[in-house]
Design brief:
Elements (H helix, E strand, L loop, with lengths): L1 E2 L2 E2 L2 E7 L2 E6 L2 E6 L42 H6 L16 E3 L4 E6 L6 E2 L4 E7 L2 E6 L4 E6 L6 E2 L4 E5 L3
Antiparallel strand pairs: 1-2, 3-4, 4-5, 6-13, 7-9, 7-12, 8-11, 9-10, 11-13
Length: 166
């Protein structure tokens, strides 16, 4: 990231649904989201005062789990076992649309149209490189539509769901 023509390395670690630890260069900040801000439109702006405490040492990532052995299935059998297509083609986007943060395969969809969710509530699980990633609601609100189904492959930016405009 460049701030005032200076280059910084920025690391963001989610502590919980509304709290983050942000390391900018050698400075560490505790950042909390307030109100009903949408994570989809969140902007990180310079001008924060660093914590008085010294910067914490970077956290180490958990050791990867060994990959499971591939299933022994023929290509035609695997193709016939493919899940049904999503209820609505993944496309569009726009205001109130939450998108996939990375490419992968949707393992679970935990919401349906009409569900009321809180920001950070689990809405899906995305498998990316054998890691199961919980996808939290980007905002509080009512789900208008779900564009994906379990077993569906998605790319970064693929629309997952849309919130009703309230």
């Amino acid at each position: 990231m460049n701030i005032s023509d200076r280059e910084f390395v920025v690391n963001v670690q989610e502590i919980d649904a509304d709290n983050f630890e942000v390391v900018v260069g050698d400075d560490t900040y505790q950042v909390s989201l307030t109100g009903d801000e949408s994570l989809n439109g969140a902007v990180i702006a310079p001008g924060l005062t660093p914590n008085a405490a010294p910067a914490a040492a970077p956290r180490k990532a958990a050791a990867p789990r060994p990959a499971a052995a591939p299933a022994a299935a023929s290509a035609p059998a695997a193709a016939s076992a493919a899940p049904a297509p999503a209820r609505k083609p993944a496309g569009g986007g726009g205001k109130g649309t939450q998108t996939a943060p990375m490419p992968g395969v949707i393992l679970e969809v935990n919401v349906k149209a009409g569900d009321v969710v809180t920001r950070g509530q689990q809405v899906a699980i995305l498998d990316a490189m054998k890691m199961h990633n919980m996808i939290g609601a980007a905002q509080a609100g009512t789900i208008a539509d779900v564009y994906v189904a379990a077993g569906q492959s998605v790319d970064h930016g693929t629309p997952l769901l849309k919130f009703k405009e309230e």
